[in-house]
Write a structure and sequence with these properties.
The protein has 2 helices and 3 strands, in the order βαβαβ. Strands 1-2-3 form a 3-stranded parallel sheet, covered by helices on one side. The mean pLDDT is 75. It starts with 5 loop residues before the first strand and ends in a 6-residue tail after the last strand. By secondary structure, the protein is an alpha/beta fold.
Length: 77
């Protein structure tokens, strides 16, 4: 992961009781990336979530400017 310029995140986002997506798996992966990556990376997140969730995922990223994020084709399956 440290040597690759691109990191793909493809994790489950099951629904919570209120119908919103459970982003805890995404948050867990982002926390792990943040703890492991010392330089800029492109992070591509592919998950079945509503498009309005992209901002929530982007806001999970640390503010240290260590990497960029691209959220690709989020569709509810």
């Amino acid at each position: 992961m440290i040597e690759n310029p691109i990191i793909f995140v493809t994790v489950s986002t099951p629904s919570l009781e209120d119908g919103s997506p459970d982003l805890s798996y995404v948050q867990s992966v982002i926390d792990e990336i943040d703890a492991s990556i010392p330089s800029h990376k492109t992070i591509i997140i592919k998950s079945a979530v509503p498009s309005r969730t992209n901002g929530e995922i982007y806001n999970m990223l640390p503010k240290r400017n260590l990497y960029l994020v691209q959220i690709v084709k989020t569709t509810v399956e």
